[in-house]
Amino acid sequence: MASEFNVTTTLNPDYGDRDRVQSFFIELTHSELDGVANISGLKILRRPYRGSFSKNLYEYGLERLAVEVFDKFGHVRPWLVDEGTRRGTGCWGKELDSGALIYIGNISIDQEWLSQAEVVLSHMINALVQSLQLQNGGTLVYDPPEESTATALHDSQQISFLQKTGFRRIGRTGFLGYAIDPSHPSRRLSAEADAAPQDEGFDKEDLHTDEVKLRFPLHFSIVTIERPEVCNVIKTFHRQDPSSIHQADSSGFTPIYTALSRANLPAVRTLLELGVAEDLVNAHNREGMTALEKLETVMRSSREFSEALTGYWNGYSDDELRCEFWTKRAMGLPTSTNDEASYLTIRRWGCTCGSCAGGWLSRRMRFRLELSAGTSNDNMGEQLVEFKRGQAIQDPVAELTDLVSEYIPPHLRRSFFKTFYQGYRSVFAAIEQFLWISNEPLSVARVASLAIRGTGLSFYLAKGGKYEYAVAALIGAAETASELGYGDFEDMYLGEAAFTTDYMDIPPCDNDLEFALVRRMAGLHPGLPWGPYKVGEVNIHGDSMLGVLSAGAVPECMQELERRIRLGETF
Question: CA nearest 511: which of 368, 364, 367, 372?
Fold first, then answer.
């Protein structure tokens, strides 16, 4: 029968994102009949996104995929592959981090072919793999619809057919994955052994407000009553019925789960004081999470949404961190410190290792930056022979191979004399020295204080050069060398025994790849472009006010920049 099918494939690059996204539409027809089935969706490449993967998923309406399965780096969420209930069967692992991501948006099968849906689906999947040239790897991801349409199978029926075709649930989410590699563990797992979704057995729809108030008054109070007063309300419920503080609602959410989901600090402290230890380890609910995991999910989602919407994030709130601190203490989990104020300082900017400089510059990130500074300094030294006495290099980006000259704005390239270049290089030497001898966080001001006697520095600054350009180039080069870019750091340096040992001995941290955060905290305003600059690109750094940054007055300058941006003033 398969030989009687004809396949028509339509592939279209997204013209706003053509290097990373390609839409596809594959139609299956029969030699004697009209359309049999079709499948459509997106082919997404992850590596070029450089930390903005979630943002781009949002732009394509794939918010759930960004929240539940992949993070902003295109990495699979850790709870889907680490030990725990949300892992499901455990057939998926870190291989989801690499290769093309094929998001299937729709699968439609003509009613006349539903009895042979398994054969049709199998043929379409094979056609999809061949058409998108996925033989070398990648993962197909599909989120089955909850309601049937004229040409779509009902949710449970479609899932059954897809599982027979080789799709397996990713963790316990609603998403099904198909591994192109025939030796993948998911391909050896029987359809009957696949995991159930985590919301199975619970109400999938939220109750109406009036019904929540009637059936679950304590939950309703935690959500609606002003925070100071909620403490007395909780104590009143507990005094009247001690079991009330443990009662789960129709979704399986306990009062402590509800309180932590809102970061309602007074409610959390009161419930912890009354004793809800057993509820803190309970993950039997619609979301399959413990109360602490829910809080951490809310914190993470709020951060990622802010970064996707505005390009930056202002740190976790005090209430979120206090809720996290006291809940961890109640569960006997490590907190890096026993002092609440110290915990807020450590965790404000996302540190999970407990040793980030300033709470944001992780030791592994510092290692990358130090290596980047040293490599850039050495490479620039080798480029000095390209200069001729008294002559500026006309096109440094084309004539030099240092990878950092492209961070000098175009309007300054007419000043690209050897002395200017030596001054620029002096800043990299100062950064390398600073990262080597200090445990302080990187900042433009500290770099300026160390680079003050560098060769050619006075000429560089006099011609309009800034310390910021070197800081931006350093961070950009480190990011390009990371797995978010071309992966040179992982491919080359981690293959050398000395580098591998030094790097891998450092405890990992959530901030290890937070290059955007490092830029901002080091003194590079997120609202301004910092390179690399293309030929003919308009530069806005010529304003004399920006030169104040090079004098080390970073906080005051940032306030002025933010004021100008807020008022819509030009630069």
Answer: 364
pLDDT per residue over 23-82, tens digit each? Answer: 999 999 987 767 799 999 999 887 656 677 888 888 889 999 999 999 988 899 999 999
- Please check whether residues 175 and 228 belong to one and the same domain: no
Q: Which string of DSSP letters, residue by residue, matches 187-214?
A: GGS-GGGSPPPTTTTS-SSPPPHHHHHH
Residue 392 maps to a domain: yes
| Unique residue bearing structure tokens 């070197």 | 470
Cβ–Cβ under 8 Å, residues 313 and 325: no
Task: Return all residues near 232 (Cβ < 8 A) that are at least 6 apart.
Answer: none
More confident site: 540 or 216: 216
Q: Nearest to residue 77, comparing CAs of 254, 253, 281, 301?
A: 301
CB-based contact 442:475 (threshold 8 Å): no
497: CB partners within 8 A, 6+ apart: none
Token pair, residue 541, equals 């750094």
Residue labelled with tokens 């030989």: 3
Q: Looking at the structure, tell me whether residues 92 and 219 fall in a common domain.
A: no
Q: Which stretches does DSSP call E strand in 508-547? A: none
Same domain, residue pair 290 and 312: yes
Collapsing DSSP to helix, strand or coil, 112 comes out as: helix
Say which residues have a Cβ less than 8 Å from residue 107's Cβ, sequence separation at least 6: 37, 38, 39, 121, 124, 142, 152, 153, 158
Alpha helices in 275-401 (DSSP H): 277-280, 291-310, 318-331, 340-347, 363-383, 396-399
DSSP 484: T
Please choose, from the candidates 134, 138, 45, the residue with its C-alpha nearest in 3D space to the C-alpha of residue 95.
138
Do 60 and 151 have their domain in common? yes
Instruction: Give dist(CA 518, CA 275) in Å, integer.
Output: 41
Q: What is the pLDDT of residues 80-121, one digit of tens each?
A: 999 888 999 999 999 998 888 999 999 999 888 888 888 899
Count CB neighbours of 312 within 10 A: 14
Encoding tokens for residue 186? 């998911």
* Mean pLDDT, range 243-265, rounded to an integer: 97
Return the sign of the alpha-carbon dihedral for residues 166, 171, 172, 175. negative
Q: How are beta strands 101-109 and 139-142 bridged, if at all?
A: parallel
